[in-house]
Each structure stands twice: as C-alpha cells, then as structure tokens.
C-alpha cells in the first residue's frame, strides 16, 4: 500500500529538516514525502535533504493558506493513505507503522496521532499544554473504547485519499472539517497512541490566544458550515471544565488552573466576537505564532 506523508509548512526553515528526517528515517518501503511551503527559505532547507532521501518531493504552493496547500498536496500525492503533519513538529519512531496499521480494517477512514507537549511543566503555559494534551489523549481513548465520535488532531493524522474532501479556503480548522466528513461518509476514526507527534506550544499569552483562536474558533466555523450542532462548542467544553482540577498536585498548579478556566472563557468570548459578530476572514485570524518556531 502506497503511503504519502504530507508536510505543510510556512516560514519554518529551522524546523522543516527535523520534521522530514523524523518521517524519512522510518524507511517504509512504499513511502513518499511531500513538503509544501509558499516561502523559498523553507523550501531551500527541505531541498537540502533530497540527495539523502530520494522519496522526498517539494512543492511551492501559492501562499493562500493551509487548506489550499492541502488541496494541492492531495492532487499531487500518489499514496492511497495520506499522513498529514506540519513543518514545525516532529513524529516519534514507528509512527508511520502505528498510524497506517488500523487501515487494514476497511471501515477505518482516518486515524489520529497522539500529541505530546515539549514545553516545561514548571511554567504556566507549559503546564497548560501538558494538561490539555493529556486530557485530549484520555478523551480520545475513552471515546474510542465506547464507540463515540472524536476528531483527529491537525498536528498528525492519516486518512484514505479517496475520502479527503475539497477544503474551503476560509477554513480555520481543517482537521475538524475532514474528521466530520469521514464520519458522514460512513467510516470510523481510530486513535494510534503510539503515533506520537512532539509539539512546542506558545510561550506568551498573546500567542496562546492567537493559536487557540484559530483552532477552537475553527470548530465554531465548522458548525456553521456543516449545520451540525454536535460539533465542539463552549457549552460542551464548559460542562467538563472542572475535570482539569484532578491534575493539580500543588498550590501553584491550583492557581494556574484557575487562570486557565478564565482564559478559556475569555477565549470563547473573543472567538464569538471575531467569528460571529465581526465576521473576520481567515487571513485576519490565522496569524503566525512566532514563539512556537
């Protein structure tokens, strides 16, 4: 079975090499790697690895955003299974094997990877990253074991090429939109905990809001695009907010959790204003998060 690993990137010349190497060294016999970026700096850095990895191709996209880049990548990809990830993260050993194996079941349409934070738990934003990624891991496991729906993470997931929908270019959260379409076509989504993707999260509150606004706000957008009321919402999230307090081990962490509760509330207010009232475009919301590079 032919596999295409697609790495979308933008102004990430310092991290794209690590992202490519982490996948390429896994030596899958039928693996091709596609790197898409609109900027020359990232493509130059990626092209340096072409001699070492003959299965690597680079494509310069038009710079119209990640959804447009993914639409182009899917047209170019030769694989039956697509592995999607980003240029500022890297995957664990045996990720390709772990995330592809579930497709032996013909009912499986997509498989989500497992996000691991690289940040220090000794700082507030790093602690938040560990807690929220840990909760996402537990939630996916629970829903997988109980037959409930859950969405893939945009940092790392795989999908059958035939199921990949054409993405509206204004999308903020392509992972949620793709996951929704997989279920609507009658397929299931699996979770591969051993397919780990290592992510550096924002180190400033300003960048934290920028990142969360485009990811969490994207679900608000998907709800409108699909007319589906079950997609993630403030009501659904707030109903389980107090579960985070089980992760507290000292007074400092308790205080950080209190701040997180109000930060999430503030985030949803900002999202509602920007998406529902101001009707901001994707270009206005999808800003580069410098502290994650």
Structural write-up:
The chain is an alpha/beta fold and 293 residues long. The chain is built from 10 helices and 8 strands. It has helices at residues 16-24, 40-47, 66-76, 95-100, 124-146, 174-184, 205-226, 234-238, 251-277, 282-285, and strands at residues 3-8, 31-37, 56-60, 81-86, 90-91, 108-117, 156-160, 188-199. An 8-stranded mixed sheet has the order 3-2-1-4-7-6-8-5, sandwiched between helices. Helix 7 crosses helix 9. It is globular. The two termini are 34 Å apart. 39% of the residues are buried. Mean pLDDT is 88; it is low at 233-239.
Number of strands: 8
Helix content: 40-55%
Kindly, what is the distance between the CA atoms of the first and last residues, rounded to a whole number of angstroms?
Answer: 34 Å
What number is the mean pLDDT? 88
Q: What string, H for helix and E for strand, traces the elements in order?
A: EHEHEHEEHEHEHEHHHH
Structural class category:
alpha/beta
Shape category:
globular
Reading side by side through the largest sheet, how are the strands ordered? Answer: 3-2-1-4-7-6-8-5
What is Rg? 18 Å
- What about the largest sheet? 8 strands, mixed
Per DSSP, the total helix count is 10
Contiguous low-pLDDT stretches (5 residues minimum) are 233-239
Strand content: 15-25%
């Amino acid at each position: 079975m032919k596999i295409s690993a697609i790495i979308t990137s933008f102004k990430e010349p310092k991290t794209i090499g690590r992202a490519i190497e982490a996948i390429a060294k896994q030596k899958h016999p039928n693996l091709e790697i596609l790197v898409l970026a609109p900027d020359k700096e990232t493509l130059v850095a990626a092209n340096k690895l072409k001699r070492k990895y003959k299965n690597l191709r680079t494509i310069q996209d038009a710079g119209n955003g990640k959804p447009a880049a993914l639409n182009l990548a899917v047209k170019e990809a030769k694989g039956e299974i697509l592995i999607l990830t980003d240029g500022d993260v890297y995957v664990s050993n045996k990720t390709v094997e772990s995330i592809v194996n579930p497709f032996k079941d013909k009912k499986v349409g997509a498989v989500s990877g497992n996000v691991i934070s690289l940040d220090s738990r000794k700082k507030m934003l790093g602690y938040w990253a560990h807690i929220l990624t840990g909760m996402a891991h537990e939630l996916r496991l629970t829903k997988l074991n109980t037959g409930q729906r859950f969405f893939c993470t945009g940092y790392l997931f795989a999908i059958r090429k035939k199921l990949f929908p054409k993405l509206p270019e204004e999308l903020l959260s392509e992972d949620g939109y793709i996951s929704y379409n997989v279920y609507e076509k009658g397929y299931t989504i699996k979770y591969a905990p051993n397919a780990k993707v290592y992510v550096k999260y924002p180190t400033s509150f300003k960048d934290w809001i920028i990142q969360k606004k485009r990811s969490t706000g994207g679900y608000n957008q998907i709800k409108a695009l699909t007319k589906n009321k079950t997609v993630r919402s403030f009501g659904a999230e707030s109903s389980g907010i107090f579960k985070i307090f089980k992760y507290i081990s000292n007074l400092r962490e308790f205080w950080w959790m209190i701040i997180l509760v109000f930060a999430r509330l503030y985030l949803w207010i900002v999202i509602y204003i920007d998406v529902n009232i101001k009707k901001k475009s994707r270009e206005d919301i999808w800003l580069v998060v410098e502290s994650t590079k």
